[in-house]
Every structure is written in C-alpha cells, then in structure tokens.
Amino acid sequence: MRQVYLDNNSTTPIDERVLQAMLPFLKEHFGNASSVHTFGREAKTALEKSREKVAAVIGADPSEIYFTSGGTESDNIALMGTAWYQEKKKNHIIISSIEHHAILEAAKFLEKRGFAVDYLPVDKEGFVSPDILRQKVTDKTSIVSIMHANNEVGTIQDIAALSEIAHRAGAAFHTDAVQTAGKVKIDVKALGVDLLSMSGHKIFGPKGTGVIFIKRSHKITPLSHGGHHEKKRRAGTENVPGIVGFGAALELADSMRESEHHRLAQLADHFIDEVQKRIPRVYLNGPRDNERRVPSTVNLSFEYIEGESIILSLDMKGVAVASGSACTSGSLEPSHVLTAMSVPVELAQGSIRFSMGRFTSREDIDYTLDCLPEIIERLRAMSPLYQKTS
C-alpha cells in the first residue's frame, strides 16, 4: 500500500543532508560547548556557526539568536519573559484568538496571575484587523503576540503593519514564525519584530530544537536558571547536534524557499480544484490566494462528516492527515481557530488539514484525490443529517 504523508505542519522528517551535518556531533565531536578543552571548543565553534547561519537567514545579528528546545519554549520565553520583566510598569498583553496553544496557554497562565489579556478577533479568512489592534493597545501593554502564519489554515498576517501599531503605543511585538520559517521570506527588521520564534522539526530538522530571536535592545526575565548558557537567557547545556541540525535545516530550507513555494502552490491549486470538482459541499478554510496563505497548508471542511472519521479512513489507505493542531489531537472540541473564523460548528468538526512538504509529490496528491471521494461518499451515507438533505 502506498504511504502518503500530508501532515508536515505537525512535524517533518529529517532531511538526509541535515542528518549528515549532525552525525559528527553525535559521535566524535561530542564535547560540551562550555568546556575550555579541545572537545569543548569544537562544540562551541559549531554552535556559533549555526547561530551565524540562523542570523543570516532572518536578517539578525548573531548576538540576537538564542537556541531553545522548540517553538513552545521560544513562545513561552517571549510572552512570559517580557511580561514579567515589565510587570511593575505594564500588566496588559494582547494576542490573537487563533494563536498556537503555546501562546494561548502562556497567556492564560499570566492572566491567572493578575495580567490583563486581550484576545483579538479575526475575520472569516483568519486575519487580524489593524484597526482593532489600534483600539486595544495602550501605554500599559507590554507585549503584542500575533503569529506570522496560522498552523491550521495557513493565513499569513501583515506583521509589519501590526508591529508598527504596537510600537507606536510603546509595546513590544512577538511573532510565532514556526509555520513560515523556510517557507516565507523572514527579515526581522522589515517585519519590525522584537521577538520571533522558530522550531527545527517543522523545517526538516531535528525535534527538540528551536530558536528565539530577541532584539538586542529588548529585555526579558529568563524562565530557566542554572548556568551562563545562551548569554544567561536560557540555562542548560546546549544541544549541539540539534543546534547544528537546526542551522543546516534553516539554511537549506531558505535556499529552496522560492522554488518550493512555486511547486507547492501548484500542488495546492491542483488539489483544491480537484477536490471541489469531485466532491460536493467542500469548503476551503482560509484565503484561496497562495500569497496570503502558506501554500503547503490546505484546510478543508467536508459537510455532514466528522473529521476524525476521515482521518482514520485515509489512514487505512496509507494517507496521513490531521484535524487542527497536533497539540490538541484527540480533543472533541471544534478547532479554536475555525471557531474564531466564524466557521459553523458542524463544518469545523468536519475539517481536515492537508499539509504538504519537501517530499510531497504530484503522485501523492493524485493518490489522495483518488481515495477521498469514496471515503466521503461512504461516510456521508452513514450520516443522518446528510440523508435528510438527499
């Protein structure tokens, strides 16, 4: 049976070129980057080279790049680290209602401890309104956090415009770029951000690796304590093999970014057109335009069916897809992202995210297209709601 992986927003396989870059640091060059002997210096040199690679890709200075365990830790550092540093002067935080749970849960944590949090609404395509942000931000706002692109529907926000509004009110701005790194051009200066998060396992790098960009002038309270690592902003022995892998993965993804954008946009257009041609009552969630949506992300709602049934049926055909975020898989609640976009509950519960990647082929898409109509027809035949409309 053919195996098709269409859950790249959840995680990606390690690219062989990234693995080869990592292997020496898992074997012969195993030193602790904090040690002063030869083994340690070799590890430290590799770590700093990776820092330089990451900085070059996003237009930052290497001193502004900090390695973490992943996107969740980076998001937590950005939101909580900034909030706690500013706590005595500012106690207001703004995030969008469609953030990843790494931001949502961090905001709820701070809210329970006395911080005021505003959750910005989005329109039907998932966009935050600059006008609404302008109304909500005040001189008591310490940080605004709005993700670069949504992990469920792929909507790309106008971060430059939003960050400018935040800065005019004296607030810092963070963006979660986990789903745009390697897919969309990232320039921290052009975006106007003070903090930016990325994750290794979304860009064909290793799990357990991440980056937070912190603008040199921005101050935070560290969340971890116990050492001088990462300029005292993130204590703990550095994961040198993972960091080498992250640097290699981001550099590689950026070198392929334009060609991959074009290729994946063609695959997405073909997939959406064919699904809607072959199957009635299917709706795209998020923008249709591949410049306003990360093209590798296609979120579709199939009327009269629960998403979990589609996932399991496709899995039996060898096709891996998702419904919403991997961090909330197993939840019976409709996606908070689709709910915020005013998607009706019955459609939100029938939504499937097809996320393509570097190793997705036209043959993979065509195989999925061949499997879907029979699955949808069979599941709808069992739906009392569908039978009433037939």
Which helices and strands, and how do they pair?
Blueprint lengths: L3 E2 L10 H11 L11 H21 L6 E4 L2 H16 L5 E5 L4 H12 L3 E5 L9 H7 L4 E5 L13 H10 L3 E5 L11 H4 L3 E5 L10 E5 L25 H16 L1 H22 L3 E4 L11 E6 L4 H10 L2 E2 L15 H5 L4 H4 L2 E5 L6 H20 L2 H6 L1
Helix pairs in contact: 1-8, 2-8, 3-4, 9-13, 10-13
Describe the model.
It contains 14 helices and twelve strands. The protein starts with a strand and ends with a helix. It has helices at residues 16-26, 38-58, 71-86, 101-112, 130-136, 159-168, 188-191, 240-255, 257-278, 307-316, 336-340, 345-348, 362-381, 384-389; strands at 4-5, 65-68, 92-96, 116-120, 141-145, 172-176, 195-199, 210-214, 282-285, 297-302, 319-320, 351-355. Helix 2 packs parallel to helix 8 and helix 3 runs parallel beside helix 4. The protein folds into two domains: 4-12 and 257-389, Aspartate Aminotransferase, domain 1 (Alpha-Beta Complex), CATH 3.90.1150.10; 16-255, Type I PLP-dependent aspartate aminotransferase-like (Major domain) (Aspartate Aminotransferase, domain 2), CATH 3.40.640. A seven-stranded mixed beta sheet has the order 2-8-7-6-5-3-4, sandwiched between helices. Strands 9-10-12 form a three-stranded antiparallel beta sheet. It is an alpha/beta fold and 390 residues long. Helix 6 (159-168) links the parallel strand 5 and strand 6. 42% of the residues lie in helices and 14% in strands.
